[in-house]
Prior knowledge:
The complex is a heterodimer.
Chain A: H1 9-35, H2 40-61, H3 65-88, H4 109-129
Helix pairs in contact in A: 1-2, 1-4, 2-3, 3-4
Chain B: H1 2-25, H2 32-52, H3 62-83, H4 90-114
Amino acid sequence: MTTRVNTGPGRLLVAVYGVFALAASARAGVQIATKFSEAPLAYSLSAFAALVYIVLTVALARGNGRLALAACLIELAGVLVVGTLSIVDSQAFPHATVWSGFGSGYLFVPLVLPVIGLVWLFRTRRLGQV
Amino acid sequence: MFSAYSGWVIGAALLLAVVSLVTAIRNRPMGAVVLAGLVLVELALVVQAVIAFPKAGQVTEQATFVGYLIGTIVIPPAAVWWGKAERTRWGPAVIAVAAFTVGVMTGRLLQLWDMP
């Protein structure tokens, strides 16, 4: 099971997560370094999202299915909570994070990605048990 | 000059993304065409970074601009490193993601460049 998570479709998944880890970290880094006081909550969430993507990229690449599963669930919760809050309470989120508007600034990939990730992790887990 | 050149870079990156995607859909592993295409795109991105880097001072969002420049030249080698071990259709799929990403990032570079 540990070797299957990061091969085949899993290899593509790692590549996509890697891109998001890079994008989210760079974005959070710039936001926190240059204008943190403008929107501390949004920028802290930006950094949190970046951290989740980094953990997921590494966990998937190394075939650590259990850690990836946990991070994937946190990622899905994060997108849904931040996405909803950014629409309901736009005052608290005047500045975009990766998860604002359910990831609308990134072609909604941040919303779809955790779902695909969970499907893939559950599939490899079941295959591993057979 | 920067804008015209980057337009060609975006075109080349997106073309490579399509070629890689077609390769993946046809269920072929990564071949010479995809690899050569990626090398060419990488060279074009390095030239772009060399042209644009000294001009970063003229851009409002300087840190973001430099970050994108570095990102575009780091992503293709990383994609080859990660995708080459995969001798299935998922190898070229990794390259498709990388090529699409550097295309979009070059588009963002142009936006940042044109911003007052």
